[in-house]
Write a structure and sequence with these properties.
The complex is a heterodimer. Chain A is built from 7 helices and 10 strands. By secondary structure, chain A is of the alpha/beta class. Chain A has a domain of 66 residues. Chain A has a 6-stranded mixed sheet, sandwiched between helices. The two termini of chain A are 26 Å apart. The mean pLDDT of chain A is 92. Chain B has 2 domains: 181 residues, no CATH class; 106 residues, Alpha-Beta Plaits, CATH 3.30.70. Chain B has 11 helices and 4 strands. The chains are: A alpha/beta, B alpha+beta. Chains A and B meet through helix 2 and helix 3 of A and helix 1 and helix 8 of B.
Chain lengths: 226, 308
């Protein structure tokens, strides 16, 4: 599903943000990527969403070889990867339903498809009854649920979550993790970057540890050790 | 194929909606941008109509003022014929009439109601009226080719004189027309540049205030056209609104212009506006849209980074 083969990303003459990283994630896996700040976790996710291009190495996601992508293909690649951001990135002047629908609108989806999919996803993330609320009327956890709903509404095979609990209190953080587990159970591959030791330890899933741009540990049922 | 077309149609509708929403969301900036464009389009229209009025004045002048070329009494008839042929060959000359000495005398007496005193006086001094050619010029302000013909050395034994002051007057009008056009275009150019700058800045601010939204759109898979589209729609709307307003203002000003304005030869301009309401509105709207789209494209090229 996700393959990074000897991927290196350097900025100028400084030390490489990522150095010869090899990661292979199977279909339907739930993988935590951990590491101290500046280790290269965000760079890794940016490479997957093609915000950045690797200096060397190969990336393949869902059968798409990134070397064959042209610039005009990038939006279509991003439509196949659900992305959840630490700062939610919601449109403040759109309601919950409109924010979720927006992910479909940009693809040219019909009104019928939007009306069919959006309420189902809002229900899946537990925000039924809040579809007409604006982001400012929601708690942090609820906003992150909207962000997840927006990522899911196009039914991606891969969900990439960049520190989704970083701005949340422990209770809401756990709610989000439970939701990600539920999504993974439904068949979506989840790649989660986090700093939260409790979450990583409690999840008891595969953990990839990155330090100074290198994969230093890759355990099938890992614990938080940086 | 049909599905792809349907998707494009749906996306186009959404881009139109997003651009319109943005136009009203930044209404104060939109009003400023549309106002400056309105001024620009009004200046362009006024220049066009003023130019038409001066042209009409010149045309009237050409009809009212044929140029007379007076013939020497002792000019040989074949030389007079040669002069007529030469004048007629000038493409700027639309008509040439010959007036003999006797006809000139008769015309003079007729103009004075065949006054007996005058008839007696003319009888005493003899016929001093010269024969002449009356040449009708298409463009009085550009009579150089005409004057070159009658001032040729070969016609020194034929031409006594010609009324150059009429040509000078006409050339004066021509110069005024040229200046009207030049000043009009310079002012229109300045205001077009100001419009471009104002719209450029408006779109730049819109890009700035929506930068997070744009980044989010990029990250969730919006295409470049889907992101750029609303800005183009927004700037086109400035053109549509200001073009509509400008054409409405021009139409009503020209329609309600008092008759006393006709001394400025505005009849042609008024007819032009009245007979081309739709064409005029379309031209102004199109002009506005072009200015808006160019400004918007410049602002996006400079401030909208979509390559990552």
């Amino acid at each position: 599903m996700i393959l990074l083969d000897r991927v290196t990303k350097s900025y100028g003459n400084n030390q490489a943000a990522l150095s010869r990283v090899n990661i292979h994630i199977e279909d339907r896996e739930f993988v935590c990527v951990i590491g101290p700040s500046g280790a290269g976790k965000s760079t890794l996710l940016k490479l997957l969403t093609r915000e950045e291009t690797p200096t060397s190495g190969k990336i393949i996601v869902g059968g798409i070889d990134y070397d064959t992508l042209s610039k005009k293909d990038i939006p279509y690649l991003r439509r196949r990867i659900g992305t959840v951001f630490q700062d939610f990135k919601l449109l403040p002047n759109k309601t919950v339903a409109e924010n979720v629908a927006f992910a479909l609108e940009i693809t040219g989806a019909s009104k019928g498809r939007i009306n069919n999919n959006v309420p189902r996803v809002i229900e899946l993330v537990g925000l039924e009854g809040k579809a007409d609320n604006f982001p400012r009327q929601l708690s942090g956890g609820e906003r992150q649920r909207v962000s997840i709903a927006r990522a899911l509404v196009r039914q991606p095979k891969v969900l990439v979550a960049d520190e989704p609990t970083g701005n949340l209190d422990p209770k809401h953080a756990w709610d989000i993790i439970k939701l990600l587990k539920k999504i993974n159970k439904h068949g979506t591959t989840v790649m989660l970057t986090t700093h939260n030791q409790d979450i990583v330890n409690a999840l008891n899933r595969r953990v990839v540890t990155i330090k100074n741009g290198r994969v230093v540990k890759d355990e099938a049922k890992g614990r938080y050790q940086v | 194929m049909m599905q792809k077309l349907r998707r494009i149609g749906v996306s186009f509708g959404r881009v139109l909606k997003a651009g319109t929403v943005s136009f009203f969301r930044n209404w104060w900036l939109s009003i400023a941008a549309a106002s400056i464009m309105l001024v620009t389009l009004m200046i362009v229209s006024s220049t066009f109509l003023l130019n038409r009025a001066v042209s009409d004045t010149l045309a009237d002048l050409a009809l009212d003022l044929p140029v007379s070329v007076f013939i020497l009494d002792d000019a040989p008839p074949e030389r007079v014929d040669a002069l007529e042929r030469a004048i007629s060959s000038d493409p700027n000359v639309t008509n040439v009439d010959f007036t003999s000495k006797e006809q000139a005398r008769q015309d003079y007496l007729a103009e004075n109601d065949f006054s007996e005193e005058l008839i007696e006086a003319v009888g005493i001094v003899g016929n001093t009226f010269p024969a002449s050619f009356e040449a009708q010029l298409d463009d009085l302000s550009d009579a150089d080719s005409f004057t070159r013909i009658i001032e040729r050395d070969e016609f020194n034994d034929v031409v006594e004189s010609y009324n150059a002051e009429r040509l000078t007057t006409a050339q004066g009008f021509g110069e005024i027309q040229d200046r009207v056009v030049v000043v009009g275009f310079v002012v229109a150019g300045i205001f077009t540049a100001i419009s471009v700058l104002v719209i450029f800045n408006t779109i730049r601010m819109a890009i700035f205030t929506r930068r997070e939204e744009i980044r989010m759109m990029k990250l969730i898979g919006a295409t470049k056209n889907f992101i750029r589209g609303p800005f183009l729609v927004e700037s086109s709307l400035y053109g549509v609104i200001s073009g509509l307003l400008a054409s409405t203002i021009v139409y009503f000003v020209m329609r309600s212009a008092p008759d006393s304005w006709d001394k400025f030869k505005l009849t042609g301009s008024k007819e032009l506006v009245a007979n081309n309401v739709v064409e005029g509105a379309v031209a102004l709207i199109l002009g506005g849209v072009i200015i808006g789209v160019i400004s918007s494209l410049l602002a996006m090229a400079r401030h909208l980074r979509l390559n990552t």
